[in-house]
Amino acid sequence: MSHPVTTMGEVKDLQQAFKHAVLVRVARKIVETALLCGEVWPDDYSIAEIANRDKNCVGGAYNWLEGAKVIYRDRQSNRPSTAENAHGRTIFKWMLANRELAETFLRRNPLVEMAEPMPNHQPVLLA
Length: 127
Description:
With 127 residues, the chain is α+β, with helices and mostly antiparallel strands. It has one domain (8-108): Arc Repressor Mutant, subunit A. Helices cover 39% and strands 15% of the residues. The protein contains 4 helices and 3 strands, in the order ααβαββα.
């Protein structure tokens, strides 16, 4: 029997297990931008190739990288997003926390092809 997901940690675990390629792709964009600029805003890069059903991985990628001490959120710097469909919601600036960790992250997390779901596939839930 499954239980409802209730914490961000559980969501992150599920994303790493079942949407790993998406999470790595988004995290790499964040790290690459942070390495180039020393900072990254969530609308600094495009996620157009990410399917709508997977866009929830963006927040998970930031949390993953923050937990790994690669980036940190600058709580003093925020502005309205300019990204399409963001509707001007407030976003925060993220700063590069550790260049060496960021470079190591990129080396150890190569791009992985994102699998498409099988048509009409219904997952089998194991008890």
